Structures are given as structure tokens and as C-alpha cells.
Amino acid sequence: MESASEGLSTSSLDLLPMKRLKLNDNDGENVDVVVDQEWVPGESSKTKKKKRKKLELTKEQLQLLDQAIAEAPTVLPQEFINRINEMGGNEITLVITKYLYKTDLSPQHMRLSMPLKQIKNAGFLREGENQVLERGIISVVLLQPSLELTNLFLAKWDAKAKHDGSCNACYILRTNWMNVVRVNDLEKYGVVQVWSFRVQEKLHMALVKIPNVIL
């Protein structure tokens, strides 16, 4: 199996410039507190009103998803451990357990979002990497559910909501993400885990699909 990490620098953070972008207001991750809001057409800027879209899941379905996340394993599947050992990897750390929302699978967004408030261990990043993410992006190697390797970019976005000034920060994995979705048959509301590990100090990540309830 050809390693996707060939040709990537292991002595640097692979800093690339990134234009700071704002996430769309309809990029909410928590379905039970949907923030998908739109301006009502035809109204002036002074009288514009917002309307809330209906929840796509019932309360019972949301509870099933929450239960699946709460009961997700806290260790990597053995096949992932074996693959990481083959690569000489170490420092395996659980980053996040989440379910996939529509924007995670959207060709218009083309990224996996990982809200900071859901991150299990912020220590998966080195201090220098945190500094890089304040102004740029980091190249990472992703170990997919198929156990194939691919290259992605890790970035940090701060999404400032216009209606109340609140700020929702998240890490995102992007560039080639839609290929990951296709190859691994990722589905809406599927539960996944993202893990981090190191190979010769370079940041790698692993994406694990968690057996989920049928909604």
C-alpha cells in the first residue's frame, strides 16, 4: 500500500497561506438547536425577520444519536492500531466523536467540521501547530475507514453569527474530503470518530465509522 505521506516534510508544519473565511449562518452542527435561519424575502433591512427551519430529526432520534455517541468505544479498532504500528505511529489520541450533519457531506462545503466545544483532547496539537492554525493551514495524512491513506488540510475557522455576535470556532478537514466521503460511503447522521497520531512527529489523523442506530 503506497503511503500518502511520501514527499511530505516531517520537519516542518507545512504552512500554507489561507484566506480567513466566515462560515455560513446555516452551518449549525447541533440539530437539536438548529440555527439554520434565513431573511424573509421582500423586507427592508430594518424590518427583516428571521425564521427557524423545522428540525429534521425527532427528539427520540436525537436521543438515539446522543446515546450512540456516548457509548462509542474509547479505543481504536485493532485494524487501525495494526496499520498505525506498521507506519511507526505513536501518540494515539481521540479528538472527537460526532455525527455527520448535511454540511459535512455537502459538495458546496467540502469539509468535515469539528467544533472546538466537542473536542475531547485539545492537546492533540503541538503549541507550534496551534500558532500556525491562527494564520494558515497544516497538511495532514488521514487514515480512512478503508485503511487507505490520503492527504488533507487541517484549518481553524471562527464563525461569527451575525444575529447575536456569538462565535463558534471549529477545526475543519478539507481538500479531498469529498473523495473520503465517496470512498468510505459516509452518510448523513452517521457517527464517526477522529483520532490523531504521530509518525516521525508529523501529525496524522484517523477516521473511524461507529456502528450506528438506524434512524
Average pLDDT works out at 78
Distance between the termini: 36 Å
What gross morphology would you assign?
globular
Tally the helices: what do you get? Answer: 4
The poorly predicted ranges are: 5-15, 17-54, 162-166
Let me know the number of strands: 10
* Global Rg: 18 Å
Structure description:
It is found in: Nucleus. It comes from Crotalaria pallida (Smooth rattlebox). This is B3 domain-containing protein. By secondary structure, the protein is an alpha+beta fold. It contains four helices and ten strands; from the N terminus they run E-E-E-H-H-E-E-H-E-E-E-H-E-E. It has helices at residues 59-70, 78-86, 127-133, 177-183, and strands spanning 16-17, 37-39, 50-52, 89-99, 111-115, 136-143, 149-160, 167-174, 191-199, 202-210. The strands form two sheets. Strands 1, 4, 5, 6, 7, 8, 9 and 10 form an eight-stranded mixed β-sheet that branches. The two termini are 36 Å apart. Residues 5-15, 17-54 and 162-166 have low confidence and may be disordered.
